[in-house]
């Protein structure tokens, strides 16, 4: 007997989940140790991973009353692309660890909800296939390769496939130390391909000190010499806007703007430099530095509608989900990711209304008790 996935029972559990944390529990239960370690880990002691969530919950709101919230609008746009609500999918590697439909399922869910998906360089599905599934709602995340021609090829493919922006990840010259992956020697199951990142065979001979195949794979390909000087070259490759993902300071935000780049505030979900500042705590100085000249996005620890409003109040234009999308994918493929987005959209709408706002344009720092 072949089981279709998700099964009726899993679909029912998804529909009954009332928040993202219940979907996380469903997703975790479907994953083996190898995948679970990879998705869940933060770097080292996990301080930054936890701080992303904790620092959101510490901020208190100042709701206004008697504002006629009978008609609340959650729509916005990112780089001109209209979004039904200010939430997109952050890039994460290897969606095939969560579900056989992998990135196609995530892209379909994002497109269906009027969101946007950022496709990782390390996807298990080729850019072109994901672009079709995403129906124009696609950004492409880039790791700069030692072999610049491989990166150039990826940029050209992403642009030709219809991606609307390049997201250059700047916080990962080396992979952070996710100790569970070292302990259990993370390994990419042999049936999964990484079609944008060079063949597995080409990498088989590479060795490092690490027990994790992930680190070995990454370090063989990605160039730790990436610097501000590379941005002009990257810009020359395509007409796409460039977003720098992993900015945590006003200094780097200023440099990003000087280089004509948009700013994605991220600490990689606490997976890189442990004890780095939480993203919501980093956002105010970055918003002050950027001063409206470029768009600002944020990820890390977003799991409630009120988290979304807090990030917008402090200057983000939209926020992105890393692990929550993966938990949804594991819990029920496209249906699971859709459920995550639907729940969060409902929470954003209700939080807006209860804050006395009719639209996102009315969300400013005066919503927060700092
Ligand atoms: C399993 C996993 C894989 C990731 N892979 C990538 C990646 O390939 N490229 C990238 O720029 N960021 C990657 N990230 C970081 C996410 O884009 C994002 O910054 C982070 O997950 C946001 O935090 P959250 O998980 O708390 O939402 C990954 C994160 C996770 C959890
Ligand atoms: O795991 C990650 O966070 C990540 O960005 C990554 C992606 C591919 C290979 C190694 C690390």
Automatic annotation (TrEMBL):
Gene3D superfamilies: Aldolase class I (3.20.20.70)
Catalytic residue list: 268 (proton acceptor)
Gene Ontology MF term list: FMN binding; oxidoreductase activity
Pfam short name (any one): FMN_dh
Alphabetical list of InterPro entries matching this protein: Aldolase_TIM, Alpha-hydoxy_acid_DH_FMN, FMN-dep_DH, FMN_HAD, FMN_hydac_DH_AS
Binding of FMN, residues: 91-93, 120, 141, 169, 245, 266, 322-323
Annotated FMN hydroxy acid dehydrogenase domain residues: 12-370
Source superkingdom: Bacteria
Name of the protein: Glycolate oxidase
Record-level GO cellular component terms: cytoplasm
Keyword Nucleus among UniProt keywords: no
Signal peptide (residue range): none
UniProt similarity note: Belongs to the FMN-dependent alpha-hydroxy acid dehydrogenase family.
Record's keyword terms, sorted: Flavoprotein, FMN, Oxidoreductase
UniProt-listed SUPFAM superfamilies: FMN-linked oxidoreductases
Cofactor(s) of this protein: FMN
Entry binding sites for glyoxylate: 38, 143, 178, 268, 271
């Amino acid at each position: 007997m072949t089981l279709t996935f998700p099964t009726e029972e899993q679909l029912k559990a998804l529909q009954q989940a009332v928040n993202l944390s219940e979907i996380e529990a469903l997703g975790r239960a479907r994953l083996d140790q190898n995948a679970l370690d990879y998705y869940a880990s933060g770097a080292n002691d996990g301080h930054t991973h936890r701080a992303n969530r904790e620092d959101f919950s510490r901020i208190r709101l100042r709701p206004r009353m008697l504002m006629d919230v009978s008609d609340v609008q959650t729509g916005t746009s990112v780089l001109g692309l209209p979004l039904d609500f200010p939430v997109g999918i952050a890039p994460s590697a290897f969606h095939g660890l969560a579900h056989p439909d992998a990135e196609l399922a995530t892209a379909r869910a994002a497109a269906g909800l009027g969101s946007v998906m950022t496709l990782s360089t390390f996807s298990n599905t080729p850019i072109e296939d994901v672009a079709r599934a995403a129906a124009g709602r696609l950004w492409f995340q880039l790791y700069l390769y030692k072999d610049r021609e491989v990166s150039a090829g990826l940029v050209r493919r992403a642009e030709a496939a219809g991606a609307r922006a390049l997201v250059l990840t700047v916080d990962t010259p080396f992979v952070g130390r996710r100790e569970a992956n070292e302990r259990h020697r993370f390994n990419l199951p042999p049936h999964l391909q990484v079609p944008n990142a060079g063949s597995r065979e080409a990498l088989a001979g590479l060795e490092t000190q690490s027990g994790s195949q992930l680190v070995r794979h990454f370090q063989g390909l990605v160039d730790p010499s990436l610097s501000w000087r590379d941005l002009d070259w990257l810009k020359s490759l395509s007409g796409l806007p460039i977003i720098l993902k992993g900015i945590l300071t006003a200094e780097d935000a200023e440099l990003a703007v000087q280089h004509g780049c948009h700013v994605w505030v991220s600490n990689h979900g606490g997976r890189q430099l442990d004890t780095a500042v939480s993203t919501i705590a980093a956002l105010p100085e970055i918003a002050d530095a950027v001063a409206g000249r470029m768009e600002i996005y944020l990820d890390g620890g977003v799991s409630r509608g009120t988290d979304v409003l807090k990030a917008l109040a402090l200057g983000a234009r939209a926020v992105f989900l890393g692990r929550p999308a993966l938990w949804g994918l594991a819990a029920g493929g496209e249906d699971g990711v859709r459920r995550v987005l639907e729940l969060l959209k409902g929470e954003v709408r209700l939080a807006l209304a209860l804050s006395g706002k009719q639209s996102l344009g009315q969300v400013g720092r005066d919503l927060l008790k700092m």
